[in-house]
Amino acid sequence: MDDSSTPSPATPPTTPTPKVMWILPATMIAIAAVILVVMFIYLRDHGPAGPVETGNGSAKLSADAVATLLSQRDLAIGYLENHQFEQAEKVLVRIIRQVPDDPFGPRNLTICRELALEKVDAAREPERLTIAIEKAREAADSSAQLEPTSHIPLLLSARISIKARELEKAASALKRATELAPKSAPAWYDLFLLNPISPGEPIAPETANALRKVYELEGDNLFVLKDLLPLLVQTKDPTLADTVVKAKESLLPFAAVIKTSSRVDIVQMLDKLTAAAAAGQWPAASSTAMVIRNVIVAEAARDERYVRLNSLEYVLLDFGPKFYAANEAQTPKDISPIPVKFTTNDKQKLSLAPRSTDIAIGDFDLNGTADGVSLADSKLTFSFPLVSTDDTPVMTTSTEIGEGLEKLLAIDLDDDADLKLKEVLKGHGCAVADLDIIVYGSRGLKAFENRPAAAGGPREFVNKPLGESMDELRQVQSVVPVDLDLDGDIDLLTISAGGIQLWSNRGNWSFEEITNRSKLPAASFGPTFAIVVDWDRDSDQDLLVSGTEGLGLLENVRHGRFRWRNFEGSFAELKNSQWLHVEQIGRNPSWSIFAGGPTGLKVVVTETTAEGLISATKVIKVNESPSDRAISLDYDNDGIRDLLVLEKPLAGIYRGKSDGTLSLLAPASAGDLSGIQATAVADVDRDGDEDLILAGADGVRWQMNEGGNANGWLDVALSAVQIKPNEQNYSRRVNHHAIGSMIEVRAGDRYQSQVVQGAFTHFGLGPQKKADVIRVIWTNGMPQNVVSPNPNQLVCEEQKLAGSCPYLYTWDGEKFAFCTDLLWNAPLGLKFAENVVAPWREWEYLKIDGDLLRPKEGQYQLRVTAELWEVEYFDEFRLFAVDHPKGTDVFTNEKVGPASLAEHKIHTVSRPRLPVAAKDSRGRDLLDQVKSRDGQFTKTFENKLAQGLTEEHYLELDLGPWESSDNGKTPPHVMLYLTGWVYPGSTSLRVQHSQNPDLIQPRPPSLHAVDSQGQWKEVRPFMGFPGGKTKTIAVDISDVFAPGSTDHRLRIVSTMEFYWDAAFFTVDDSPVEYRQTELTLAKADLVDRGGVSSRQWPDSGNGPDQFFYDRLIPGDMWPPISGAFTRFGDVQPLLTTRDDYLVVMHPGDEIQLAFNVPSDPIPDGWVRDFVIYSVGWDKDCDPNTVYGETSEPLPFQAMTVYAHRDGLARESDPEYIRYLKTYQTRTRPRTPFWKPSRQR
């Protein structure tokens, strides 16, 4: 019997006393009360703010709750734009709990969940995908209930259904969306995309109707036109002829460039299409329409953004009006004005001429102090410096210019940078290229070159003829410096009696008119003024133009071409403006316009809509005083630009406010503004605030700013200098002062952006004494960040340039280490000259040293990353293990050059020999530097002309004597092995170089040897070269020496920027046994890496920049690229064979490769290296690259010119169409890159 189950007689059974019985319930009640209190406090602060109701039915929140919500709003948007969907969802769910009746939360949660579907691998995670789709639909339904009259929730719902492969649901939602918004071109285009056109397949009536509707709404849209023409042919539409006429008008200005890049005459093709259709020859018409579609992709790509929108374009940026009607939200307030007064400096008389019609301030003699120039009485008067000091008296000089020239422009036209001045100017300035002068007016236009004078005297300004066409200009109203063709130098736009004319700088003080490349406004428009601005934020420079009939935009479509877009609606208020100024106002990154003319001063405030278009939201009429000039400044450094306007009869200073309004500064503070004919702004005394230089009939005076520097400030000067250790060279990829670039500054909650118009760009910071970050968007589209710049000083920012090609990282046993770059021989759209497109070879075999690739978990793991501003296309990867005896080496035959030069073979080395001497073109001994591969690279040139371009230079090697294996009966087999790297130029630089007949052109390495007469002779015009980062090439030199000669000297001659690390050779080297094994591809995944690798230059040795895989710089580093990219997930089926089914990568993407380790062990005494074989292409986003702004068109194996063969694109067979629909489904939004102002 178990005694433990029976109470002992000595211990009677216990019964809970009443006191003990109530403790447990009381404790539970207390815990519940605490929970309720906590929930109450939480809901008070984080949820609905109690039962206080407003008249519109919305709950009123406390001030603290509203402030928290506004912070959460910005945080949610920041997470969304950065593709941090998990974090965004958490914040949005909190917001919805607090304000469930506001559209902000549900719509943005729908977008968040719909975009997050792209990160789910449907093949590997089907259950997770199902759950994610259900959650996305729940959010979409909530959004639709709160926005019953909006088509956007329906568009988002349709996109969710498409990803769920429920096309009938998607079609139903899209049809309802077009009913709600019949004038929304993007809605109709989404409906068209549901069943895109496939050659040979019948077209659904809904598809055809949808695309026709898009074209009705976007009649000038070439992206729509490229699809519409084949559709009209396939349906034998009677409107085809009229559409072709309209297409010809749109494409005519671009015909020459299209012919250069594709070898197709687009006008001829359009005529051929019309004729074939008229004759009923529909197969011929169909073929012609597809050729047209294929060759206008570059022009069409720019218009994609107007009809094909990423879901992020539909993000709601703020709560709705009901929220603000119900709550007292803290709105951003203008910074309280600080006391500022302008006073005339009577002690410092300026030596510029009276009665000046124009003046300019700049460092004309490059000594770090401000100088001045005035235009009066038919001459230019220069003052060196502008203001005298105890150490520097003023010197003046004059230059006669002739009559009828009333305005001037100070700009560097000849790129004459002198980098030796950097140390001289340290702390006082940044520019090392002097300012030249343009004068213009009723009698035309003249240019004067700024030259140093002999014997230390003042500078000389020498008249430079600019060409007969420019000499014929008359009645010149406006001259705008701008890099029209984006090739890195300053071009000009002129407005004169001849209307708008565009002039390309040829680099030798001559300008060629290129107006006929562009589509300009009608002659009746009557242009009056123009300014440069990247209006549509697509990384190139547009031109905002006012005229007697209105306002419009010359939209940059690249390659020196512009397309006119007339602005309507409220923009018409700005017609006949004599001056224009643009500024970003508020949180939305959109340029608003300030303008003045005969009818007064006006402001048009704009915003960028959800569909990526810019619209006017309001017009502010400041006054009705006529004005003909204005200049922008921030006199009180509050971070909002102000204006000095030359009104009649009296000039005025207008203080800007955050809502776009302007208030006139009281005369007591503005100082004497009477009798002003011309003005300039500069911080003359360098105290941090901007002073005024005013020219009138009685002379030029300095109005000192007293008090403006009480707020924080920053001066930014840009310099297009290439930075490498121990070397600084003018890159020439951007004009020296970076005119036309955009600088963005964020300081606290203040965001500013300005277009660079001169050597200095001034930013006021308000009470914030330090900027958080500066971002520069250079004129070639390259972005660059400066984090936490020093306060209250000049920041000299020099361009740090990117290279090209995807990077290969390999597992070295401890980490993924940088190995090399890929696809250097396969550039798409690269130009050797303005009218010459480079060839390509899409395959390559590259060696991987064995110590860089070690097994990990039974596999060899590699990472291929897209880190730079380019598109990568990969078709196949193969990896080979090459085992060979220790003490020997193997190399591939890879080098940049045609297939015949780089035909694959394995070179083995057992007896390497070193040169007996090595020197460069200046006779410097380099033998120690080339004896071994040690990272100490030679630099055989002295003068660098531009990035990638140098003076002619050579590496000379003396290989010494050798004996033949058969006593000279047959020439010995001699192989030269060179290890080095090349710093590349760019397409735009090559275009710039090709325009200047006086400039040295890039020449790849050629091989020179000594002939039988003892003279140097070119024996191999092109020997191939190592592409990109450090590589070793093998060159057969058996036949380059004179027969019987013992003089075995060689020269590798080039004008490209090469650096050599090692050189050795072999003579009749015995073949080495080796074993080559192809490894099995076990895995290939495409993933979003979320950023790019950290990069740094080595401290010494002239080596290439180095990249660190494990030091990730997160975020979108580059402007977005249009077109479709491969969806994330398993891409192994695309990379196993060469079949045109490509993996298309956007910057920030990564391919993760894994190959199985072979079962056979490495033989004893042997070592293992590897060879990676890849097939693919890369296309950088240089503004002059053919199709450089889009991922499309896709390359293919049989093409003879990029993207087509004899004018025809790759045949779209059913399998290829299935590939496109399955894999090429990802697009990149504009917002993460172009909305930096929000707090992250």
Concise synopsis of the structure shown:
The chain has 1240 residues and is an alpha+beta fold. It has 24 helices and 63 strands.
Keywords:
about 1250 residues; eight-stranded antiparallel sheet; alpha+beta; about 30% strand; disordered C terminus; about 20% helix; 24 helices
Helices and strands in order:
Elements: H1 18-46, H2 63-81, H3 85-98, H4 104-116, H5 126-146, H6 152-163, H7 167-180, H8 185-194, H9 205-217, H10 222-234, H11 240-251, H12 255-262, H13 266-278, H14 282-295, H15 297-301, H16 321-326, E1 341-344, E2 358-362, E3 371-376, E4 379-384, E5 395-400, E6 407-411, H17 421-425, E7 436-441, E8 444-451, E9 460-463, H18 468-471, E10 478-482, E11 491-496, E12 499-505, E13 511-513, E14 527-533, E15 542-547, E16 550-558, E17 561-567, E18 579-584, E19 591-597, E20 600-608, E21 614-621, E22 627-633, E23 642-647, E24 652-656, E25 662-664, H19 667-670, E26 676-682, E27 691-696, E28 699-706, E29 712-719, E30 721-724, E31 727-730, E32 742-747, E33 750-755, E34 761-766, E35 773-777, E36 783-787, E37 794-798, E38 807-811, E39 816-821, E40 831-833, E41 836-837, E42 843-848, E43 855-856, E44 859-865, E45 870-885, E46 889-892, E47 906-909, E48 917-920, H20 927-930, E49 944-946, E50 949-958, E51 974-983, H21 987-995, E52 1006-1010, E53 1016-1020, E54 1031-1036, E55 1049-1067, E56 1075-1078, E57 1081-1088, E58 1091-1096, E59 1106-1114, ...
